[in-house]
């Protein structure tokens, strides 16, 4: 990469078709936020919407708002909106619980739908909760299933007639490597297995096409690229062809065929609603809807295009200016398909990241040595990338990260 | 009950030691809210607190707030506060997920802790989600367990050496009948069984003494008497003696011994934290904390005393003025122990409740024929009870409920 002038950067920002979205977010002064893949920034609309929900719908409407504000349909309404971002039909996506809980529902449902098969596949280094939820689901089912963690390039060759389920995160949370959803899904289905895709690091960052890939099952996170707020509700996708045969192991009243008949016996709702469990967070649902609405206003292809351009710029500048300081790119090289974050390895990654944060450049650290930077096209400018690399180079060159205060580990890293 | 004068009612309100708490809630004009057992009213502090969380902690603090605003410890911090309301130690209660999901965690954990036993007991007409979660948990475990629904007076005599678990709702959601927690717990433990108490209709309404009853396990709801807001996070209690031996079937990353080590294998946290699963709703947690804090300011004994006085007044007035209109008390008679709601049966209960709601007296309807009125001592006055009965009597006497608009069923009843 050649040196790039500030005039060139200004021109990129001036020509950015998504530039106007930045003003739709509330961003703190003096901060370059490169962690929207961990917690998305606050849309300006959200604060007002949440106030309406709290003071109007809850405070004034009280219990009546289940009908008058249509709280009862929020999981389906917001789910149908997310369906447009993931290439699904509106009735195939529902918002509920957390990603982890939704993983459990679909893992158990899938394994019970393949009773003769006992092999489960995932990859080492998958996002931990995916692996943990697999482990504990297998234990709950009595331990007859065997979980194998196979390096990502060998997964397809390990799928056999014995495989019940493959669970993969579409975009890797550390490296931004992307799985080929269509190819893996087809390979699994050819052997009679199902694939459960974790879209937490994809949704809102990349265009997704679940139905075009003939996907079976998916889950995803609401608080990363969807900007739903800390601990936002998650979503799940079940292809329509599986609606009748898959049953949630968490048969809560909200997923009952007639929740307000108050019968003693569980009868799952028809369709995607059977994957609801207890009463959903109404405030969480409303905040998530604001973030999703912003993405529906934008063009996902445009978002993906800018994500790639930001990433190429970031990788190029770091290579040019920081490589001599032991900073190594992790994950896909420039030009290759990738998710919307960029990660670099450095033995002192933790302290370097603390020094960056102290200077207003916020990324995050993933053990043991990865500095991760999220690229969110709706609220980042090309100039922000240049600034982040300026600060990174300065911290490395001056060895500012050696200050003792950057070496104290915090509760959340 | 003798007729009671408005002067006497005014004197009761004037002498009420909890009277000042009413001003701490945001209550709509012209409404007498008797449904706080379904969705508690909005504490005034909550709107400000939620705005701080959204605009300050999320908007300004962004990802840093997991440390700087101590989001990471909210489940334990709010859990420790709820522990004071339920008679538990601070480290025995944690806030997480929904009541239904927490039921699942503890049902599966308890059944796996009693591997030789296959009988599970509950009562017919228990709150549906308790029964549904039992049914679906048993199915997940392979169907070897048998769920028996035993009338409430016969439960103790049905507990045998074969019983693994008894799951009961402490206060019945329709009738307000109260189980004897100490007696049932002791009877179950004498046979080697565990009891899981659903406190959804008790917590914040009655003083509870889990440890004094030697309780094993409990769950409870945040959005009823605790005023945590629609779909507030729920809580669970596990007695310290069970912490090491019970493992959650929902082994999400937040319940891992080292969530930020990002290892491939699940190792449950020590103590109550192992019952966390995914990322909790930060906003939901903050709103719940406001409601819990109000209860900690008040005296639970005082709340229970006023609850009983409101109920006796309500039952007495309805008996005196509405009995001739086919209104029959359901549940404990005057003088008997009860929860903090009062229910009446009427064949046209649905339409009558709609007519009441149209007149600003908000209770709810529970199929097939129950009109239910929640009594929340922190924000109800004795005068509100008199007003509610005035309106009820008027609706019955004029047969106002016969209007067609009151007979159209809404999505949420």
TrEMBL record, chains A, B:
<comment type="pathway">
    <text>Cofactor biosynthesis; NAD(+) biosynthesis; quinolinate from L-kynurenine: step 2/3.</text>
</comment>
<dbReference type="InterPro" id="IPR015422">
    <property type="entry name" value="PyrdxlP-dep_Trfase_small"/>
</dbReference>
<dbReference type="InterPro" id="IPR015424">
    <property type="entry name" value="PyrdxlP-dep_Trfase"/>
</dbReference>
<dbReference type="InterPro" id="IPR015421">
    <property type="entry name" value="PyrdxlP-dep_Trfase_major"/>
</dbReference>
<dbReference type="GO" id="GO:0043420">
    <property type="term" value="P:anthranilate metabolic process"/>
</dbReference>
<dbReference type="GO" id="GO:0009435">
    <property type="term" value="P:NAD+ biosynthetic process"/>
</dbReference>
<dbReference type="GO" id="GO:0005737">
    <property type="term" value="C:cytoplasm"/>
</dbReference>
<feature type="binding site">
    <location>
        <position position="253"/>
    </location>
    <ligand>
        <name>pyridoxal 5'-phosphate</name>
    </ligand>
</feature>
<feature type="modified residue" description="N6-(pyridoxal phosphate)lysine">
    <location>
        <position position="224"/>
    </location>
</feature>
<comment type="function">
    <text>Catalyzes the cleavage of L-kynurenine (L-Kyn) and L-3-hydroxykynurenine (L-3OHKyn) into anthranilic acid (AA) and 3-hydroxyanthranilic acid (3-OHAA), respectively.</text>
</comment>
<keyword id="KW-0662">Pyridine nucleotide biosynthesis</keyword>
<dbReference type="InterPro" id="IPR010111">
    <property type="entry name" value="Kynureninase"/>
</dbReference>
<dbReference type="GO" id="GO:0030429">
    <property type="term" value="F:kynureninase activity"/>
</dbReference>
<feature type="binding site">
    <location>
        <position position="100"/>
    </location>
    <ligand>
        <name>pyridoxal 5'-phosphate</name>
    </ligand>
</feature>
<comment type="pathway">
    <text>Amino-acid degradation; L-kynurenine degradation; L-alanine and anthranilate from L-kynurenine: step 1/1.</text>
</comment>
<feature type="binding site">
    <location>
        <position position="198"/>
    </location>
    <ligand>
        <name>pyridoxal 5'-phosphate</name>
    </ligand>
</feature>
<dbReference type="GO" id="GO:0030170">
    <property type="term" value="F:pyridoxal phosphate binding"/>
</dbReference>
<dbReference type="GO" id="GO:0019441">
    <property type="term" value="P:L-tryptophan catabolic process to kynurenine"/>
</dbReference>
<feature type="binding site">
    <location>
        <position position="169"/>
    </location>
    <ligand>
        <name>pyridoxal 5'-phosphate</name>
    </ligand>
</feature>
<protein>
    <recommendedName>
        <fullName>Kynureninase</fullName>
        <ecNumber>3.7.1.3</ecNumber>
    </recommendedName>
</protein>
<feature type="binding site">
    <location>
        <begin position="127"/>
        <end position="130"/>
    </location>
    <ligand>
        <name>pyridoxal 5'-phosphate</name>
    </ligand>
</feature>
<feature type="binding site">
    <location>
        <position position="279"/>
    </location>
    <ligand>
        <name>pyridoxal 5'-phosphate</name>
    </ligand>
</feature>
<feature type="binding site">
    <location>
        <position position="99"/>
    </location>
    <ligand>
        <name>pyridoxal 5'-phosphate</name>
    </ligand>
</feature>
<dbReference type="GO" id="GO:0019805">
    <property type="term" value="P:quinolinate biosynthetic process"/>
</dbReference>
<dbReference type="GO" id="GO:0097053">
    <property type="term" value="P:L-kynurenine catabolic process"/>
</dbReference>
<comment type="subunit">
    <text>Homodimer.</text>
</comment>
<keyword id="KW-0378">Hydrolase</keyword>
<feature type="binding site">
    <location>
        <position position="201"/>
    </location>
    <ligand>
        <name>pyridoxal 5'-phosphate</name>
    </ligand>
</feature>
<comment type="similarity">
    <text>Belongs to the kynureninase family.</text>
</comment>
<dbReference type="Pfam" id="PF22580">
    <property type="entry name" value="KYNU_C"/>
</dbReference>
<feature type="binding site">
    <location>
        <position position="223"/>
    </location>
    <ligand>
        <name>pyridoxal 5'-phosphate</name>
    </ligand>
</feature>
<keyword id="KW-0663">Pyridoxal phosphate</keyword>
